[in-house]
Structures are given as structure tokens and as C-alpha cells.
Amino acid sequence: MNFSINPSANPLPADKRQEILSNPGFGTNFTDHMAMVKYTAGTGWHDAHITARAPITIDPATAVLHYAQEIFEGMKAYKLADGTMALFRPDANAARFNRSARRLAMPELPEEIFLESIRKLVDIDRDWFPDVEGGSIYLRPFMFASEAFLGVRPSNEYLYMVIASPAGGYFKSGAPAIKIWVSQHYSRAAPGGTGAAKCGGNYAASLIAQQEASAHGCDQVVFLDAAEHKWVEELGGMNLFFLLEGGHMITPPTSGTILEGITRKSIIQLARDQGLIVEEKPYSISEWRDDAQSGKLVECFACGTAAVVTPVGTVASEEGEFTIGAGGPGQITQQLRRQLVNIQRGLAEDRYGWVQRID
Q1: Cα–Cα distance measured from residue 125 to residue 11, given in angstroms and rounded to the nearest whole number
Q2: Domains present along the chain, CATH in parentheses
Q3: The model's pTM
Q4: Are 195 and 259 within 8 A, CB to CB?
Q5: Segment 245-255, tens digit of pLDDT
């Protein structure tokens, strides 16, 4: 499928853009263009184009507003040392996007359309890359049911879009570790639910627990399993890793209730290749507490596209709190983060074929 390119007639002036790029923040400023592709039952995917970023008009009866048929991805474009723009494992994002689509009874998007929409948008908006520490162009591909009807059934029409946002570093080396709150009254997902899909409803359901965490002075919330409220699952938007003494690492298994993070998958590969023993197995909240208090647990971190790798220093709940290690970033945590970031930015050899250049 060929994308038609309709450049913006009114891009943001260079001086205004540079003002934003000097301190881009995260998710609050957006580039000049967006990608769009339509789907109609019986016709399939059509009308692929890159156009000026602008509001979209939808009918009040549009299905997504009533039945939440919506999925999305989160990924980044980086600038390599030679100035080339590149993507990190975009094929994995494309595959996960389609797994989410299947779970929500939405049409799958051919991988090449997904990848081409990303490449075209990054190419036309490459001047939006912020040359600050940890800078990137954050990409948000998403799809929603766009048919106007009131009835509980899959939509016959969908709109796939990609928007982009200049982003600064979410985590800086040496930054303090975060404090997280254990949610004991709310669940993120249950077996048979949408926990493994990247859909807006999962995040909406996590917000009240995040509010509870903030009220207790915590940065993030961690969810336990819905059945027993015993097994650690993940944060509101990040996967968790536990590093025990002796180079033994544990991360909860992706068995349908946990999102299969691409950063998570990459960290597992890097850790194993440097000799760490990584097990994907259940880890209980009581084990977490006991191992931290005994000193057996030496480091803990969360990971995801936006934050990359974030150390966890303190865990709080209604039963009190405990500290992991010295309460700050651990050596292995920071080492894994450096390895990953250096591959993403072309500062280290990519022997895995994870980085895809945009010519």
C-alpha cells in the first residue's frame, strides 16, 4: 500500500519548534503531521496518507465512544550517531498490535502498513527530534472503531492513525529509585480478560489505583493477581524484574494477564547473554517482602518504552513498607539500561538486529 504525502501548509515555525525541543517533556507537544489509514468491511484497508496533524471529527454515536473498541502501541524513534533516524524492534510492536486487535475483535493491520506508516511519519517530521539527553520522538500508533451505530457488535469501520511527540528523558542515570504502592483492592486484569492487550480500557481501570498510590506518596502502583491477590503482576504501565543474590533474576510470566513488553523481552535477552539466570515465573508479594528484608533481593526495577528502565527502591502497602537494597538504583539495573540505550542509539553493536534505520 502506498501512502500519499500531503505536507502541512502551516508547519510550526522553526524558532517555535526549537523552543519546544529545548525542553520537550513527555506527551504534551506534537509534531506537524500524522498518518491515517481507513478500514471498511468488504473493502479492507484503504486511503493511506500522511497529512497535517489536525483534530478529527466523529459522530456522537461512534462505536469507540460507547463500546471502547480501541488499541494502541507506544514506541520511539532515535537518532543514531551518524544522524540517521532509526526504530527499535518495530516489527515486535506490529505483531503486538495485531494480537491486541484479535483480542478486541478488530481487523488485523498488515505489518508492512504499520511499519510504513511509522517510517513515513518519522521521515517527514525528523526535524522534531530533540537533541537533549535521552531525547526521542515518541510514536503512538492507534486504532479505533469509527462506525456510527449503537449496538453491541464489532464495528464495520475502523480508523488507524499515528501521531508523534518529541520526548525528553524519562529516566536519568543516577536518578533516585521510585516508591510504589501495592494495590490490594483493585485488579488490573483477570484470566480470560484483556490484560495482554494494549487497549485503553486496561489503563482507564488502573487510574483509580494510581490515585490511591499518589495519595500515599508513591510514584507508581503495582497490581497483584485478581484471583488470590497474592502474585505480583505489573505496574500500571511497566513490567517488573527482581534481581536476587547470585545473579538470579525473576520476572512474572506473561500468561494472559500481563502485557508482553518489548523492553521486557529485550532486557531478558541482554541479561541472559551476560550470564544472569532469568526465570519467568510467579513471584508473590510475601516473597518480595521477605527477600527484601533478608537481603536476598538486591535490586528491583520496572521497564517499559517510555521510562526504559526505572529502579524500584521502596514498596508500600496497608501493611507497611520495605526497602530494596540501599533504596537506590542498583548496579545491574543501571548496566542493563546502559546496554539497551546504547543499542537503541547506535552507540553499541546491535548483534540482535533490533535497530531498523529509516533511509
Answers
A1: 10
A2: 4-167 (3.30.470.10), 178-344 (3.20.10.10)
A3: 0.95
A4: yes
A5: 999 999 999 98
